Amino acid sequence: MSRPVEKKAPTQKSIWYTLKKATTKNSEWPDKDEFLDVIYWTRQIMGIVAGILWGLLPLKGLFGLGLFIMLNATVLYAYFTNFQKIDEEEFGGAWELTKEGFVTSLAGFLASTSLRSAAHISRLAPPPPQRALARFVNRTDLQVLSAPHFDKSGRNVPLSSRQP
Fold first, then answer.
1. Within a domain: residue 140?
2. How many whole angstroms separate alpha carbon 5 and alpha carbon 14?
3. pLDDT confidence tier of residue 9, bands split at 50, 70 and 90
4. How many domains are contained in the chain?
5. Helix pair angle (32-56, 61-78), 10° resolution
6. Helices and strands (H, E) in the chain, number of each type
7. Distance between CA atoms of residues 131 and 137, nearest Å
8. CB neighbours (10 Å) of residue 140?
9. Contact, 54 vs 113, CB < 8 A?
10. How many CB atoms lie within 10 A of CB 137?
C-alpha cells in the first residue's frame, strides 16, 4: 500500500509572488532581504530603461548624468516612503535604502546609454565617401600598399629612394 505524498512548502518564494507584493500598496515585508532585492532589481531595470531613453533623446553630459541620478534616487525614495510606507529604520535608514544597488544601476545606465547612442549614431551617419578613401590609399607616401617598383635593370627599388 502506498503512502500519500506530502507537499512541502517552497523554501524560496516565487518571483511572481514577490512581484505582486512589490506592486501592491502597503505590503508587509517580514523578510528584509526580499524587499532589498525588490529595490535592487527595480533600480537595475530603471537604469537600463533610462539609458535607452537618454540615448534616444539624446541627453548627454553632466546634465544627463545628474538628471538620471536625481530621477533614480527620487523615484525609489518615493516608492519606499509613499507607496510601500515601510519603516526606514528597520532597513538601516533612508540613506541605506536610497543607495541600495545604485552603483550597478549607474553602470547599466552608462552601458545602455553608450550602446544606444552608438547604434543611433551609426544608423544616422552617412557612409564614408569613396573618393576620399581612394585618394588616401593612392598617396605617394603610403606606397606600402602598392606593388614593388623595379628600376631599368630589374632590381627592386627601396621605398626610401623612390621618386613620387
1. yes
2. 22
3. very low
4. 1
5. 150
6. 6, 0
7. 10
8. 9
9. yes
10. 11
d(CA 40, CA 99): 9
Is residue 5 domain-resident?
no
Amino acid letter at 29? W
The total number of residues shown for the chain amounts to 164
Is 81 among the domain residues?
A: yes
Nearest to 137, CA basis, from 129, 151, 161: 129
Is 10 a member of any domain? no
Q: What count of other Cβ atoms lies within 10 Å of the Cβ of residue 2?
A: 4
46-61: average pLDDT: 88
Q: Which residue in 100, 113, 92 sits closest to 44, CA to CA?
A: 100
Confidence of residue 143 (pLDDT cuts 50, 70, 90): very low
Domain that holds residue 155: 15-161
Residue 109 near residue 51 (C-beta atoms within 8 A): yes
pLDDT at site 3: 61
Residue 145 has pLDDT above 80, yes or no: no
Is the confidence at residue 38, as pLDDT, over 80?
Answer: yes
Contact 24, 85 (CB under 8 A): no
Q: What is the pLDDT of residue 109?
A: 94
* pLDDT(105) > 70: yes
Residue 70 is which amino acid? M
